[in-house]
Amino acid sequence: MSEQTQSSQTRPSLVKRALSAHAAIGLLAGALLYLVCVTGTIAVLHEEFQLAEQPGAPRLEAIAPASVQRAIASALASEAGQPLTTHLYVQLPTTTRPLATVRTDSQALQLDAQGRAVQPEAKGWSQFLLALHYSLNLPGLIGVTVVGVLGVMMLALALSGVIALPRIFRDAFRLRARSGGGLALADWHNRLSVWTLPFTLAIALTGAVLGLASVALYAIAVDGYGGDMEQVYAPLFGDESVPDDRPAPLPDVAAALGYMAAHYPAVEPTYVVLHDPLTAGQYVQVVGLPPQELIFGEYYIFDGAGDFLGPVGLADGEIGQQIAASNYNLHFGNFAGLVSKLAYVLLGTVLSAICATGTYIWLGKRRRRGIDEPRLCAAWGAVVWGTPVLLVGTFIQRMLAGPDAPFAIAFWSGLATLVLFALVRPMPEQLAKVLRWALLPTSILALALVVAS
Amino acid sequence: MLMQVQIMLASSAAAGGVGVLRYAWARKQRSQALNAIGWGLFLLAAVLAGTGAGAWGVSVAAVWAMLAVLVLLGQAALSAPLGKPAKLRPGPEAPAAGQVWDLGRRSLTFALVVPLCLAVAIGLGLATWRVMLLAGAGEAAAIVAGLFMVPLGWMLLACSVLMAASRKRQWGLLLGSAIPGIAVAIAGMSR
User: Fold this and answer.
1) What's the domain count of chain A?
2) Residue at A413 is within a domain
3) CB A419 within 8 A of CB A382
4) Taking CA atoms, what residue in B is nearest to A198?
């Protein structure tokens, strides 16, 4: 048998098997994957939503080192008599998040330019959104791992999808957008999938790595480090110091920030982290972002007196450290300011549409085989259109009922109700239409509430 | 300044590569020269961005290329002629009317693809970490390589298992891929 004949006989079989695998994975993970895509797309702008949630918090271009020192002293003094906080974080104002915030184990406060606490941090909805994306609101590591599994499923969908498209280059721009019979939907799905493949692979792989890190690193810890996870993290992100509970004076954070300004003027400090403050084992980390780097930041370490001990090496240390530290910004799209964020919002919307159309294509194929699934079709429409409507709805809830409203309960009970309704009263087109139309007025209302606040 | 110019050139080359390929693939006759120019512009973009600003530069150029694609796809959608409803094939993944769901077989497939493939992928991650250390790689590089191997290995295994022609072949794939992890486990027990 000639090679050509062999190829023509094996190719359809390979394509068919790839399509079957693609459909199986899509059906297994479809709804949750869509939810993670939509929430991830919106979460790209989580800093902007934090600003919208806290209109009264002072907008700062910068905060003086002395003010940071004052804020730390006040926060620790306010907890006198309580167990010492293990970590204290000061989030410094940046161009994309012009807020200064001090956080301990038990409180979070917004600061003014003098370092005075102005109001408690009130970003309940932004946190809900991030938790929904990171962990589907499931507890602890379970949710994070489930989302990591979804990242792997997205990778597998991308691979099987590429194998299932034998004319991937010839049809690269073939878009019969106004054809009927499912052709337009299939073309949109295929063309968008192919051309956004770098984005899909980047966010799926980084998401899968972040989500499965605990499982994978635990295995490495058990095999090579006696089960001690800290020893696995240390080569990547640096050691935690040896605890020494003897009392010590407040660390000189102002000196550390002064050193950064003098010796690393191009680096934008984003966080100050105090480990074991007011103990002899305390030390200070300044997290700073060097320009044009993919990493989330470099850790600059100072002792309690504010003396510089050195960087950890995330920016220019071992390649493994650089890769590990680059995972976050590549996933969240905040590596080039607002431009990359808006690009990620657009590409994330496209990816969500790819997820949504995939299941519609499968349902269409079943219909053409004579299996009409009005209940499944209605339920899928409820997920596709109900998810954004409910997210906007919970944002309205935030603006009207405050940052402590039960957003997760509202979202999940709303989605369950919509899906149940769709299954009990299957009117796929009507339900999708109602939800689609509901998206516009709810979005306008949410925007109006932001403007009014 | 030089770096910013490089990034601008790289982004332009990436977007330009998309445009050239769009033009090349829309022609009735394929042109190897145009194809080469299109792919060459991608390569040029990667080199310029990579040498100018490393991974950050490549990410920025890739984003511009994808945005250029979305513009071209939008244009293709707007200019698409109104087509007749096409009769699409049902596709192999949709069961025929009356075909049973065969839950037992599908549950076993799920067990193979999700928990078993994960377990094998973790074994591959451990083996990668060990091999990297033996090869003299730094500790951080070895850990990160092991970390990335878990989702990548799982992806490849999941696709391979789902695309395997028979159950026997699926088990063969899993058992074969499990060998590195089993070797690491045995070596660990003997330490």
Assistant:
1) 1
2) yes
3) yes
4) B62
